[in-house]
Write a structure and sequence with these properties.
The complex is a heterotrimer of chains A (89), B (166) and C (118).
Chain A (H helix, E strand, L loop, with lengths): L2 H27 L3 H26 L3 H24 L4
Helix pairs in contact in A: 1-2, 2-3
Chain B lengths: L3 H19 L4 H18 L13 H30 L8 E6 L5 H12 L4 E7 L2 E6 L9 H7 L1 H10 L2
Antiparallel strand pairs in B: 1-3, 2-3
Helix pairs in contact in B: 1-2, 3-6, 4-6
Chain C lengths: L1 H27 L3 H26 L4 H28 L12 H16 L1
Helix pairs in contact in C: 1-2, 2-3
The chains are: A mainly alpha (89), B mainly alpha (166), C mainly alpha (118).
């Protein structure tokens, strides 16, 4: 593993963290429930990428199993909130 | 045995996922995978009829690969489009919801068409009613002409999907 | 081998930038519908780039990363679609820049027709 690759991945991790921070601002500010939910969606999908990066840094394949369950739960959460907004739950 | 084609497609997809997820060439692992796959098919095989329209022919296979390439290209274009719109200081958007007609009947084909439209430049499915798709478009063009949006948004995908699904 | 790793790292960086643009888009867009559009597209594309880049860096993880990629690509548009339809049915306001709203018009037509016949 060369040094350049590690530096690039480090920078990518910082940028991803910034992206999640911006989504988190929308999550706090967002005037309505729909805005909060889409911010939550971007947060979870972004953290899937961050998890993949972290599993590489920690050299543990098992974290990828965690990330797919995480993605599944976020999908169900967003669908449930959508159904709730639609008043059909 | 009814629904045989549906079960076969389901089996291939589930087995493919098992192999990808375990990522191994060990035959023993494949045999372990056979058990949950067959249980799932025994429970859901009769009701899972979303694959009923799929054409299991070499032509359909080739068009599936072509569709994946076409879709990847659309995804790349879409992301560049979104990037340019977001970083443009003037924020050039003219959003609106328009009606698009589709000729596809098979539910799986419609699912794939809707998912693809959602991931292509500036368009997003809001609702589906019978044969009309309601599309939220971030930059509406050519109002008053109901044919042209259909051509721009759905036709490229539809022409390929017609070859894969009945 | 070296080059493959470098290409993968650059893809991860590009994906991170696309995710950042998703965040900026979420903050800049004027109404919920446009936020959903930008958020879904950019986050799906960004994660796809990141996962493919990771698969180039560690080829033996390709299977799992590819499964996650297919999963995200199938589920993310569906969940956003549910959210957008719910927002539209709940009568969420659209931005002033909106040009046309065919769905609302059709729903009103349907309602008028129902009232007329009953």
């Amino acid at each position: 593993m060369s040094n350049t690759v590690e530096i690039i991945l480090f920078v990518a991790g910082i940028i991803m963290f910034l992206a999640l921070l911006l989504a988190f601002i929308r999550f706090i500010v967002g005037p309505t429930l729909v805005d909060r939910t889409i911010a939550f969606d971007v947060l979870t999908v972004g953290s899937l990428g961050l998890m993949a990066l972290f599993s590489f840094v920690a050299e543990r394949l098992i974290y990828l199993d965690v990330s797919i369950i995480y993605g599944l739960l976020s999908f169900i959460a967003v669908v449930v909130v959508g159904k709730y907004i639609e008043k059909s739950l | 045995m009814k629904n045989l084609k549906s079960k076969l497609v389901l089996f291939i997809i589930l087995m493919l996922f098992w192999l990808l997820w375990n990522n191994t060439w060990d035959v023993e692992i494949w045999l372990y995978g056979l058990v949950p796959v067959l249980i799932v098919i025994a429970i859901f095989g009769n009701t899972a009829n979303i694959f009923r329209g799929v054409k299991l022919t070499p032509k359909g296979f080739v068009y599936s690969l072509y569709y994946i390439l076409y879709f990847t290209w659309a995804l790349i274009k879409s992301n560049i489009d979104v990037m340019l719109r977001v970083i443009n200081p003037k924020l050039p958007i003219r959003p609106g919801i328009i009606k698009v007609k589709t000729e596809l009947k098979s539910p799986m084909a419609r699912l794939i068409l809707a998912n693809s439209i959602t991931l292509t430049p500036g368009t997003f499915i809001v609702d589906i009613k019978e044969e009309y798709l309601y599309v939220h478009w971030i930059d509406v063009c050519c109002e008053g002409d109901p044919e042209k949006p259909t051509k721009l948004i759905a036709e490229g995908f539809e022409n390929i999907l017609k070859n894969i699904y009945e | 081998m070296e080059y493959l790793e470098l290409i993968g790292a650059i893809m991860v960086l590009l994906g991170a930038v696309v995710l950042l643009l998703a965040g900026i888009g979420l903050l800049r867009m004027p109404d919920s519908y446009n936020r959903i559009q930008v958020g879904t597209k950019a986050s799906t594309g960004g994660v796809a780039l990141i996962l493919l880049g990771m698969a180039l860096i560690i080829p033996s993880w390709f299977g799992k990363l590819f499964t996650i990629l297919i999963f995200v690509m199938l589920t993310n548009p569906i969940s956003s679609h549910v959210l957008m339809r719910a927002a539209h049915k709940a009568g969420h306001p659209m931005t002033d820049k909106t040009v046309v709203d065919a769905l609302k018009k059709d729903e009103e037509d349907q309602k008028n027709k129902d009232n007329g016949t009953v």
